[in-house]
């Protein structure tokens, strides 16, 4: 029951935030008009879902900077999820890595939220998508 209340509060904040953005942005106000419905606001709020990464195969290191030589700040355990630093996710080029000894060399790193701070996860070593 406690999780349901937290989700309800989070959803209310999300809908209120969308309303604030629409109110502050005159071009958005013109698009939405005065006949905005709860369904329209719910649809808009869904666009703000957070992205994240998960891996069901192995643990993945979380790094302070986008490089395998950077300090390791944690480990994303097999089957767990890490959220992106920003909604919609962003990735940067960084140091080279391989997810396994037989995988190709990659250089893209996702910016993730780890213990409230920005950190980096090897993009190719995780599956990325929307997370709750």
Task: Characterize the structure shown.
With 132 residues, this protein is of the alpha+beta class. Helices cover 30% and strands 33% of the residues. The chain is built from three helices and eight strands, in the order H-H-H-E-E-E-E-E-E-E-E. The protein has helices at 2-24, 26-32, 38-46, and strands at residues 50-54, 60-63, 72-76, 81-83, 91-97, 106-114, 117-122, 127-131. The strands form two sheets. It has a five-stranded antiparallel sheet, with no helix packed on it. Strand 6 (106-114) and strand 7 form a beta hairpin. Helix 1 crosses helix 2 and helix 1 (2-24) crosses helix 3 (38-46). It is globular and about 35 Å long. The model is unreliable at 1-8 and 10-48 (pLDDT under 50).
Q: Overall mean pLDDT score? A: 73
Record field, number of beta strands: 8
Q: Would you tell me the structural class of the helices and strands?
A: alpha+beta
Order of helices and strands: HHHEEEEEEEE
Determine the strand fraction and express it as a percent band.
25-35%
Which spans of ≥5 residues are poorly predicted at pLDDT below 50?
1-8, 10-48
Number of helices: 3
Shape field = globular
Instruction: Report the span from N to C terminus.
Output: 17 Å
Physical arrangement of strands within the biggest beta sheet: 3-2-7-6-5
Major β-sheet, in short? 5 strands, antiparallel
Provide key terms for this protein.
alpha+beta, 132 residues, single chain, 33% strand, 8 strands, 5-stranded antiparallel β-sheet, 3-stranded antiparallel β-sheet
């Amino acid at each position: 029951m406690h999780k349901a209340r937290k989700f309800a509060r989070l959803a209310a904040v999300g809908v209120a935030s969308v309303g604030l953005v629409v109110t502050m942005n005159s071009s958005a106000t013109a698009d939405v008009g005065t006949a905005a419905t709860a369904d329209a606001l719910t649809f808009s709020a869904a666009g703000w879902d957070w992205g994240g990464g998960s891996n069901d195969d192995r643990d993945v290191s979380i790094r302070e900077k986008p490089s395998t030589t950077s300090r390791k700040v944690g480990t994303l355990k097999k089957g767990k999820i890490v959220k992106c630093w920003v909604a919609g996710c962003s990735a940067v080029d960084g140091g080279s890595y391989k997810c396994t000894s037989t995988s190709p060399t990659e250089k893209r790193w996702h910016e993730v939220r780890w213990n409230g701070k920005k950190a980096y996860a090897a993009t190719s070593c995780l599956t990325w998508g929307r997370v709750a």
